[in-house]
Amino acid sequence: MHTDSAASAMTQDELKALVGRAALAYVEPGQVIGVGTGSTVNRFIDALAASKIAIAGAVSSSEASTLRLQAHGIPVFDANEVPELSVYIDGADEIEPGGCMIKGGGAALTREKIVAAQARRFICIADESKWVARLGRFPLPVEVIPMATQRLIRQFAALGGSARVRLRDGVPLVTDNGQHILDVTGLTIDDPLAFESMVNNWPGVVTVGVFAHQRAHLCLLGTPQGVRTIA
Ligand code: 5RP
């Protein structure tokens, strides 16, 4: 770990902008890169556009990021058109020292995992509030097929968890993939790899928001003292 620059009394949004800019160091001209979803990634996209680094384009993890990239004139490719990405840059809701994460606060977890799996390197950009010793404080997002919702709620209850369907404007949120999200509290996630494999095997689960198989290789953590680079 090293500190890149000094800063003081920065807001969370300023920390997100700081790591968004720091991620530019991992983008090389001519590449197609993977781009995640969320407010931190939005700052990265804006910094990328301002930087004039001439990338070939991006594979995006959500309709929202696609729109933002295209608004900046950055070409967006279908994941099937690009066999491998050199780098995937995305935020997290929680990240622990081993690089395992909870993601999906923005409901984009399934496409995020797909794009991350295509990349040689996952760079997580996050403000320091996301740093945890152990995963589980943030409600775990799980994308589910709606007909399995009630059974999955019972399966999480058997683990001590409390699962709720995520709502938007009073009705179940519908993801970019046409499915629903459960947010699960009260879980203990001691072994993220085993937990991810177990829940992904439950019928009706599209994607669980534990990213252990697709963990981050590097974390750029925004702190009031500057960017901590954690490998
Ligand atoms: C979206 C995600 C985001 O990366 C995560 O929710 C962090 O978002 P933000 O940068 O807005 O704090 O997983 O599905």
Automatic annotation (TrEMBL):
Organism: Tepidimonas charontis
Similarity comment: family membership: Belongs to the ribose 5-phosphate isomerase family.
Keywords carried by this UniProt record: Isomerase
Cleavable signal peptide: none
Catalysed transformations (reactions): aldehydo-D-ribose 5-phosphate = D-ribulose 5-phosphate
UniProt-listed NCBIfam families: PRK00702.1, rpiA
CC annotations in GO: cytosol
Claim: Isomerase is one of the keywords in the record: yes
Pathway: Carbohydrate degradation; pentose phosphate pathway; D-ribose 5-phosphate from D-ribulose 5-phosphate (non-oxidative stage): step 1/1
GO aspect biological process, one term: D-ribose metabolic process
Domain of life: Bacteria
Catalytic site: E112 (proton acceptor)
Keyword Ribosomal protein: no
Protein name: Ribose-5-phosphate isomerase A
EC id: 5.3.1.6
Quaternary structure annotation from Swiss-Prot or TrEMBL: Homodimer.
Record-linked InterPro entries: NagB/RpiA_transferase-like, Ribose5P_isomerase_typA_subgr, Ribose5P_isomerase_type_A
Function: Catalyzes the reversible conversion of ribose-5-phosphate to ribulose 5-phosphate.
HAMAP family noted in UniProt: Rib_5P_isom_A (MF_00170)
Binding site for substrate: T37, G38, S39, T40, D90, G91, A92, D93, K103, G104, G105, G106, K130
